[in-house]
Amino acid sequence: RRRLAPLNEDNGRFLLLAALIAAYLSAGATVFSALESPSEAAAQLRWNRTLHNFSRIFNISLPELRAFLRSYEAAMAAGIRVDALRPRWDFPGAFYFVGTVVSTIGFGMTTPATVAGKLFLIVYGLFGCAGTILFFNLFLERIISLLAFIMRACYERQLQRSGLLPPNFRRGPSVSGVGSLVGWKPSVYHVMLILGIFAITLSCCASAMYTAVEGWNYVDSLYYCFVTFSTIGFGDLVSNQKAAYQHQGLYRFGNFIFILMGVCCIYSLFNVISIIIKQVLNWVLKKLECRCCPKCHKSSTRLSRRNAITPGARLRRHNVAMDADGQYDSDTEGRRLSGEMISMRELTASSKVSLAILQKQLSETANGYPRNVCINTRQNGFSAGVGALAIMNNRLAETSDSR
């Protein structure tokens, strides 16, 4: 039986980054609270003094004056609030602020008012946003690995039920000896579907919580979830802004978890959707180009592969051979078994796009291949990660090799 290491290098790096980001958020909330809280308290004191003086001079009762200001606030969305709200720059409020800064949500309902706070925000946001984007990329890699493991387990069970695999089959080095699993690759469309279902479920659950606690209608809650999870952050609806809630600590924790998981999930979904959109555009451009050239159109019709979304020239026969480490990439066999619509070999040959990186990551994870496979350095970008992080690693590796 194969024993799993308790903590490999990738997972250790991921957990360490998560701990550093948590400490970074706490430090930033402490600094912002110390810088902005005195200014907020002084402004509130000045406003209360002005309000009482106005009421005394013009002989207007405070309830009538407050009612007028509430109507003005609702109509003009004024920055000064009449009703008592939660302090913006205490530690929980400042922590909420730095979370919206580093995740690039930026609601805008809280902004630094002091010169020191604005200068600190420039430096703080530079490193905070960079670290959070790195966290999102590592989360994308982890979620793809998990989905590939689950999809492979379901595929193996399906093969066992159909009698193509023995009942006591175990995943491991013997995978290469089983013909039904050679070159099997999970479909990127299945990954997109699973991420989409999870994002919708998460948004629906969060919307139910906001409807019950904040008093919004369900459509407004769904709108807030999308605007927040996608890091658009208009700021017209902002959660956790009342002075007090029932079970306030539990609600703050739930709000933080929903926003964190929602942003990570939507970021992963956006990356997968952007890959699909890019490939559809490439397919359309290729079709238009081939229709303009009859000779090219005839060649592409003769050499086209079944279910390949990006048509292209067939690779030379010596490129179809085994890799240097003896592992064979059965691209045609994998697509026939998994229903995959992407031709990995043609994508890698035509343009090194993110879909190739994503599909290779899914294949290596599902088939149990080691991440440090010994192959050509210029083609070893697939094991460096997924998405924008992997593209950067590939570019740096090529630059290093060229020198």
UniProtKB/TrEMBL annotation:
GO molecular function: metal ion binding; outward rectifier potassium channel activity; potassium ion leak channel activity
GO biological process, one term: stabilization of membrane potential
Residue ranges occupied by any Potassium channel domain in the UniProt entry: 86-143, 199-277
Its membrane topology: Multi-pass membrane protein
Keyword line: Cell membrane, Ion channel, Ion transport, Membrane, Metal-binding, Potassium, Potassium channel, Potassium transport, Transmembrane, Transmembrane helix, Transport, Voltage-gated channel
Transmembrane segments: 94-113, 119-140, 188-209, 221-238, 250-270
Record carries keyword Ribosomal protein: no
Cellular localisation: Cell membrane
PANTHER family xref list: POTASSIUM CHANNEL SUBFAMILY K MEMBER 12, POTASSIUM CHANNEL, SUBFAMILY K
Similarity comment: family membership: Belongs to the two pore domain potassium channel (TC 1.A.1.8) family.
Protein name as catalogued: KCNKC protein
Organism: Polioptila caerulea
Gene: Kcnk12
